[in-house]
Amino acid sequence: MAGARPFSAVLLAAGQSQRMGSDKAMLATADGRTWWERQCAVLTQAGAAEIFISARPEQTWVPATMTVVRDAEESGGPLAGIVAALERTAHGHVAVLAVDLPAMRAEWFTALWGACGPGVGAVGKYRNYFEPLAAIYPREILPTARMALARGEGSLQRLIAAEAARFAVREIGADEAMWFENRNERV
């Protein structure tokens, strides 16, 4: 995502990983990296100017060289991490990537970034559902996101629908669908 407009990124890794049985961020990839390292590499390759990691205080694996953001509200799900990153970003956009999408590629974010503009982010859609955990959020949605979080409404589907004018929507192709496979259990 080269260009004059820098963007931030947040790796969402604060989940409890209950179904997995261990912290997903620390699982190993085929090349020996951890999932969190792999995902940070994807965001770096995509061109992120700064990367935050949304993590819980007890996740001590986060190196001191990384910037940690704490969820804006406990038990707020992914929305809480997104709000925390939007509050902290120095840029107009935040690329969001969940740690448990281990097949995601930098080229997805490159394609999304091409659809972004001032005050407009981008999200993929597959079979009538948004894919909000590998999307680019504009900072302008922060007031709506904060209100949703305060109401206890963590649905990213509803947030994106409510802020539809702030998102370019990109249909996810059949060859890209595998990138969105969410891993919650050991195989």
Descriptive notes:
There is one protein chain. With 187 residues, the protein is of the alpha/beta class. The chain has one domain: Spore Coat Polysaccharide Biosynthesis Protein SpsA, Chain A (Alpha-Beta Complex). It has five helices and seven strands; from the N terminus they run E-H-E-E-H-E-H-E-E-H-H-E. A seven-stranded mixed β-sheet has the order 3-2-1-4-6-5-7, sandwiched between helices. Strand 5 (121-126) and strand 6 form a beta hairpin. Helix 1 runs parallel beside helix 3. The longest helix has 12 residues, at 35-46. The protein is globular and about 40 Å long. Residues 16-20 have low confidence and may be disordered.
Short description:
With about 190 residues, the protein is an alpha/beta fold.
Strand order of the largest sheet: 3-2-1-4-6-5-7
Uncertain residue ranges: 16-20
CATH architecture: Alpha-Beta Complex
Beta strands, count: 7
Rough outline:
globular
Under CATH, the topology can be stated as: Spore Coat Polysaccharide Biosynthesis Protein SpsA, Chain A
The overall average pLDDT, rounded, is 87
Percent strand equals 15-25%
What structural class is derived from the secondary structure elements?
A: alpha/beta
Largest sheet: number of strands, sense, barrel closure = 7 strands, mixed
Kindly state the percentage of residues in helix: 25-40%
User: Count of helices?
Assistant: 5
H and E order: EHEEHEHEEHHE
CATH class group? Alpha Beta
CATH superfamily: Spore Coat Polysaccharide Biosynthesis Protein SpsA, Chain A
